[in-house]
Amino acid sequence: MVELMAVKDYAQQIAEAIATVVKIDVEVADHNLMRIAGTGRYHKGVGQSMDRQGYIYQEVLRTGHQFVIETPGNHPLCAPCKARGNCSEKYEVVSPINVDDKAVGAIGLICFNETQAKLIQENQQSYLIFLTKMAETIALKMKEQEFLAGLVSANHYLNSIIDCLEEGLITVDLEGNVLHYNQAAKRLFSANLLTPRSHLKSLFIPQIVADILRAGTNVNEVVEREVHLETKKNRVQMILRALPIDGEEGVKSIGVTLRPFDEIGRIVHRLSLQDAGYTIDDILGVSDTVCQIRERAKVVAASKSTVLIRGESGTGKEMLARSIHNLSSRQQGMFMAINCTAIPETLLESELFGYEEGAFTGARKGGKIGKFELANKGTLFLDEIGDMPLFLQAKILRVLQERQIERIGGIAPIPVDVRVIAATHRNLEEMMAKGEFREDLYYRINVIPIDIKPLRDRKEDLQILSEHFIKGFNQQLNKEVRFISDGFRQRLFDYGWPGNVRELQNIMEYAMNLAKDATLTEEHLSPRLKKIESQAESNEFNLEKVERETIMRCYQAFGTGVQGKERAAKALGIGIATLYRKLARYNIE
């Protein structure tokens, strides 16, 4: 609560006004009996304590009621006073100053001659009402001060909150004149550009200004744009968002927020479901090759150099890439993955580099941000880079060399700080010899090579991988499987695993769905594993049968589409026409 002392100047004005009108001295005391206002002979005592003579005031403050003392010096309340019986005061009227039903002070009329005393005595009721109103006036001033102090405090608190925001915030009127801005916005612009009297035209290009002002025409209008700002330090890419500020009489102003794009990327990275959160410990296995991969990953995670992961499909190349990212200093940045095979060549360039608005027919309004920009301060995983077209290989090489990109249709280079991890299942050396892969790009991405062996060459990892999948599917499928029969384990060991760990996961999921008790047996195996006899149980060696089973496994691993057949043919080391003939020969559809 505001103290009476806070309005002492106002109380003095009231006291002087009363004294001028009624020709009687006035004094005002607070709850501590400190005289805060006074006229006449009390004027010099302002700021002094009244505790030795303010006995009437003490009673008023205690009871919260008015008191009239017709015989000062002889009244019982004056008993403790040293001037008792010899008091110069002839008549007193004292009224409490109440705030929220509590006496916070008192105001009194003091007469020093019989004429003044007679005047008040004859008109006592009128003077009591008048003094009450004056006390209420002072109380209202205190409430006003309290309200204003609350507003100042709330405004300071609100400004402190706004200044804590990492994003820049600017408010403007409907004509574009700046009304307010926070510290983050102040840091973005030079002092002469952003002031309480500046205009949006000094901050943004005309098109952006027009877009922002459009947000003020409709209470539901929200404008989002990508902007590039020349800040005090450098050129930064930001996301601008303008929205109307709705008041009691409609939209009167517009709020503009500015957030650095790389910061948005970090937030998306933390919240996005695509961040699987893999660590090195998630790369399971007891084989020497897996142990070496884990140790190598820990070392290379601290580096900024490009990594090339090589291995067949399904061996866990992306998991390894994510693990390296999450172990590195870039873990707060985005991990962006793009499969160079899955995206058509015509779209792959725009996915990687983005494009400006109007760059081509059908381009999205406002343009599009590419994966390189999204991965700024983070990691970009280029899966199946061996399938990337040659013209894009050249652009990737330029990014790795110059650390900047240009959007399709753009004219200004955009600096990017991205670590590239590439992966492929193809023989890049053979592709270079045939002119299908750039030699200079090969040496750029092959700085730190990591090879992941296929599952068939590290079958000692089958046990730990199987147990891991059983544990996961127990939770997903509400099962309680704990054991694997010897026959089931032997079939897993005898199988060639053309689809590697991904295929093992598929096999285990199939078996877990069929399981009814705590043990997986051979009857829970998928049909394709049941068809393959264990070498220990079969003495029949038929070349055509082995060839058919090998083609079948490879065909199933890579898919039945055209691209799947092409990859299967390359894995088998035969031409695509030969593969089609063998598929027809063995009635494989």
UniProtKB/TrEMBL annotation:
Gene3D superfamilies: 1.10.8.60, 3.30.450.40, Homeodomain-like, P-loop containing nucleotide triphosphate hydrolases, PAS domain. Keywords: ATP-binding, DNA-binding, Nucleotide-binding, Transcription, Transcription regulation. Pfam families: AAA_lid_14, Sigma54_activat. It comes from the Bacteria. PROSITE patterns: SIGMA54_INTERACT_1 (PS00675), SIGMA54_INTERACT_2 (PS00676), SIGMA54_INTERACT_3 (PS00688), SIGMA54_INTERACT_4 (PS50045). InterPro entries: AAA+_ATPase, AAA_lid_NorR, GAF-like_dom_sf, Homeodomain-like_sf, P-loop_NTPase, PAS, PAS-like_dom_sf, Sigma_54_int. Residues 283-513 form the Sigma-54 factor interaction domain. This is Sigma 54-interacting transcriptional regulator.
